[in-house]
Amino acid sequence: MKGGAAGARYPKKGGQHLFQGRREIFRFIKAHKTEFTVEKTCKVLGVSSSSYYYGLKHPVSVTELKSQVLLSQIESIYRKSRCCYGSPRIAIEPEQVGIHVSRPCVAKAMKRANLKSIVQERKYRVQTTDSRHTYAVAENHLGQDFAVDRLAQKWVSDLTYIKTGEGWLYLTTIIDLVDRKVTRWALSETMKAIDATLAAFKMAVNHRPVVQQLSLCSDRGVQYACSDFTELLKKYPEVTAKHEQKR
What we know:
- Residues 70-123 form the HTH-like domain.
- The chain is α/β, with parallel strands linked by helices.
- The protein folds into 3 domains: 13-57, no CATH class; 62-112; 154-244, Nucleotidyltransferase, domain 5.
- Helices cover 35% and strands 17% of the residues.
């Protein structure tokens, strides 16, 4: 092959991913210039030959030296932590010896060196059911009997959460078991009963008036057991609340 030793093979184009920066690329080109032409290797590795020759004439900059020293310290702290520390914790260590470095700077260096904490971050989970309250809880006599033969005979309700680009929203739904359709729902920015369960129930009874006995089954969360919600149900004597304990 022209410009290279007999039987020599040029590095694949994906080879540039093996290097962390231009200096590493330049060192590779210099070390293999007897095997491959400089121009060809530069083209394969995605750098210009002029930048390669410029890099040979100019020593490593002060900024690069500082970056190398910082990376060395980061790797040392990372190994001592048994690969547990992430950028927030590692950024604290250099300050103890008088070296000030920001967390984003540490995170960027760790990303380049492919250093990741083996400790997974605990995902935030919204808790919508708070059954640790002092309100009275209605017994659940509904059990698993979901048989119905008319509208507004058995309703089930629940409160859940939705993550949006602007934060968490809370969705309260009421489903009629006769047709398994959502009778009405309320979307709110808080989990307060007045914005969630009360709002959904008021819309549901307006949409499907309660004229006979109705069983409303929900969990034992404070939004269903609070005095505001129970006072509202008193206006509808046909409605019986049934609180089921979540498994």
